[in-house]
TrEMBL record:
PANTHER family: GLUTATHIONE S-TRANSFERASE. CDD domains: GST_C_Sigma_like. Residues 12-108 form the GST N-terminal domain. Residues 109-248 form the GST C-terminal domain. The lineage of its organism: Eukaryota, Fungi, Dikarya, Ascomycota, Pezizomycotina. It comes from Epicoccum nigrum. This is Glutathione S-transferase. One of its GO terms (molecular function) is glutathione transferase activity. InterPro entries: Glutathione-S-Trfase_C-like, Glutathione-S-Trfase_C_sf, Glutathione_S-Trfase_N, GST_C, GST_superfamily, Thioredoxin-like_sf. One of its GO terms (biological process) is glutathione metabolic process. Pfam families: GST_C_3. It comes from the Eukaryota.
Length: 262
């Protein structure tokens, strides 16, 4: 803990994401926290940090310091890592995770494992994106209330067909990875695929509590072993108990009771 604190006072990595919500920034935070590596969460740690995000994605930006402009947050800034000697700026959640994975010791032990980890993280992020579409099936920029009718249809299909398809898939992956004993998707150690899937499951439990409660028992490894094991992992457990962990609210994972199983 003391080492963590010390490291946090001089972070080499800067996460740029919207403040106050877990959102897609959470996938990056969980990787850092699992590895015990320091990072600066600019918008949550500095008064007008949000300007750092809004300026990056400003519609007139053609990039900064020799980096292209990010399309949308999250983005990660790493001092001195741009080939021009300046800060390197990368964006897109899976791109950031695959960059950090080997550096944080969360990308497996060989090339095959590294690719499987990326594949599973992308699949978990697909599930994340499909969850978002249950409350915004028509237009990202419109209010949920303006697309409620379509949301009800989308959420019904999501609950009845997509949730069981994704959960069934990950249950098979856990079963097939005997080395992982139900605790890891790939190999026998924690990876960013595990932390990414865990966050999506956690979000689904928040957004669709009735649906998930009714289905949990069908996935013996996923909810009997994996979920708790990641939650208890070193670094993750401490983070989840800290103030740095923001509650789900109005981001990707939202609890609209009418979209849940009735
Ligand atoms: N595929 C991108 C999606 C990024 C994204 O949609 N970011 C959201 C916040 S979680 C945003 O601000 N989007 C603005 C937009 O798409 O116009 C990723 O995984 O990083």
């Amino acid at each position: 803990m003391a080492a963590n604190k010390k490291a946090r006072s001089n972070p080499p990595y800067e996460l740029l994401y919207w403040p106050s919500i877990p959102g897609r920034g959470e996938f990056i935070r969980l990787a850092f926290e699992a590895a015990g590596v320091s990072y600066k969460d600019t918008t949550n740690e500095t008064e007008d940090g949000i300007k750092a995000v809004t300026s990056l994605i400003d519609a007139s930006s053609t990039g900064t310091d020799g980096n292209p402009p990010p399309f949308a947050p999250p983005a990660l800034r790493i001092p001195g890592e741009n080939p021009n000697g300046g800060p390197l700026l990368i964006y897109q959640t899976p791109s950031i995770l695959s960059y950090l994975g080997p550096k944080l010791g969360l990308a497996g032990t060989n090339e095959a494992e590294a690719q499987w980890i990326l594949s599973h993280a992308l699949t978990a992020l697909d599930l994340n994106n499909e969850t978002h579409d249950t409350h915004h099936p028509i237009a990202v920029a419109k209010y949920y209330e303006d697309q409620k009718e379509e949301s009800l249809k989308k959420a019904t299909d999501f609950r009845e067909n997509r949730i069981p398809k994704f959960l069934g898939y990950f249950e098979r992956v856990l079963k097939g990875n005997e080395k992982g004993e139900g605790k890891f998707l790939v190999g026998d150690k924690l990876s960013y695929a595990d932390t990414t899937l865990w966050n999506v499951l956690s979000g689904l439990l928040f957004a669709f509590p009735k649906e998930m409660e009714a289905r949990k028992g069908d996935y013996e490894l996923l909810f009997g072993r994996f979920y708790e094991s990641v939650e208890e992992a070193s670094g993750i457990k401490e983070y989840l108990a800290s103030e740095r962990r923001k509650p789900f609210s109005m981001g990707v994972f939202r609890h609209y009771p009418e979209l849940d199983r009735q």
